Structures are given as structure tokens and as C-alpha cells.
Amino acid sequence: MNKYVERIYNGVIKENPTFIMMLGMCPTLAVTTSAANGIGMGLSTTVVLALANLLISALRKFIPDKVRMPSYIVVVASLVTIVEHLLKAYLPEVNEALGIYIPLIVVNCIIFGRVESYAAKNTVGLSLFDGIGMGLGFTMALFLIGSFREILGAGTLLGFGIMPESFTPISIFVQAPGAFLVLAMLTALQNKLMLPSATNGTAKKSTLACSGDCLNCSGENYDINHTELDKAKAIAETVQKSSKKSKKED
């Protein structure tokens, strides 16, 4: 896989900031009362994250280590201010719906996490694609959560009625508890699809064991899995050492 495409894939699927790393929970839970709000917040964050990664990566050799965090804050705050003014000018309804959460992008842990752990250590191109990937992953998560909440809580999607007239909206889904419920369900589904176990389709291809019966497991499957993972790690390290050795000989 191309390394730039890999950064996109990691951000959207493998290292999704919402469903995998559980970052940015404040806007995730607060603004996802509708799919439109989720898209607006996600894309705003994506623009800031991508440009922040690009700028910090380009300036990483010139920023003194002792003042790197204040420098990051200045860069991110400047970008957020630009995005906020653009929203006010061209998309006032979106800006009004998102309210205080647009300025709060300045302290979003997703942005500072990627800037510090990736952009400050990698090239401009890779950092830009990392920011785009993480931003798209965040946008996808907010859109999914917002869609479920809007459909179940209002019977609409992006403002259009999609449920039959007999449907009675479940108001809890557009309230605070609904955000936690939908996030929990989607995270559980993500884990179900991604993690190998005896209860999903990847079980036949994996030596990891899980009966899905956590109540009566008593940790037996954990011990089995731990042993299998240790074996796999040892094999991977051996292959890596052999590969490095062969390259040196060449």
C-alpha cells in the first residue's frame, strides 16, 4: 500500500480517532444531534488538522523544543479563527448550529495529538495526508453518530423525512444520553468487525479464541490469546531481523 494512502486508511479505519482512540469526545457527544452538524464539525476540524499538520511539519526544524506547545497553539488558533470567519461569512447557519464548539477546536486533543506525535517528526507530505486521514475518520464518525441520532430521534436524515408517518421519534436520542448510547453501539460494532474472535467471520482465519461468553470465561481465553500474540510477535521480530541482516549483506 502506498504510504500516503496508508495514512488515509489508518486515519479512517485502523486508527479512527473516535471509535478506536476515543479522542475528541466533547464535540462528538455535543454536536451530533443531526447528520448535518456532524459533517460541519468534522470538515471544519479536518481543514484545521490538515493545515496544522502541514505547517508544523514544515516549521518543525525551526521551532525550539522548549516553546513547541505554545507555538502549536498559536498555529492552530490562527487556523481556527480563519475557519470560523469563513463559516460566519458563507455558512452562517452551520456556524450558529455548532456555536462554541468551533472555537473549541483550538484545544481539540485530536489535533494536538497528531501535531505532536506525527507532524513534528515526519515530512510535510506524509503529515498532510495524516491530517486529512484523521480528519476524514473523525468526520465519518460524527456523520454516523449524527445520522443514527437524527433518524431515531427525529425521523429525518439531513432534514429530509425518511421514516413512515406512523413512526414515533425517540426523543432520548437527540438528548445527551442518546449520544452515549449511539457512541457505545457503534464502538461495539467497530470492535466486533475489527477484532478476531470465535463470534465473527474472521475466527476461522485466526488462532485467537473468544467464545463471546465474558461472564463465564474466567480469563482462560485471555491467557490463550496472550500466548498466541506473544508467538506472533516473536515471529515478526525474527522476520524483521532477518530482513535487516539480508539488506546489510546486499
Report on the architecture of this protein.
The chain has 250 residues and is mainly alpha-helical. It has 2 domains: 3-194, no CATH class; 198-250, no CATH class. It has helices at 3-14, 25-30, 35-59, 68-90, 92-98, 109-117, 124-154, 176-194, 220-249; strands spanning 156-157, 160-161. A hairpin with a 2-residue loop joins β1 and β2 (160-161). α3 (35-59) packs across α5 (92-98) and α4 packs across α6 (109-117). The protein starts with a helix and ends with a helix. Mean pLDDT is 84; it is low at 198-206.
Layout of helices and strands:
Layout: H1 3-14, H2 25-30, H3 35-59, H4 68-90, H5 92-98, H6 109-117, H7 124-154, E1 156-157, E2 160-161, H8 176-194, H9 220-249
Antiparallel strand pairs: 1-2
Q: What general form does the structure show?
A: flat
Number-wise, the strands total: 2
Largest sheet: 2 strands, antiparallel
| Mean residue pLDDT | 84
Sheet-strand content, in percent, reads under 5%
Short summary of the structure?
This protein is mostly helical and 250 residues long. The protein has helices at 3-14, 25-30, 35-59, 68-90, 92-98, 109-117, 124-154, 176-194, 220-249, and strands spanning 156-157, 160-161.
Write out key terms for the chains shown.
250 residues; 2 domains; two-stranded antiparallel sheet; 2 strands; 65% helix; flat
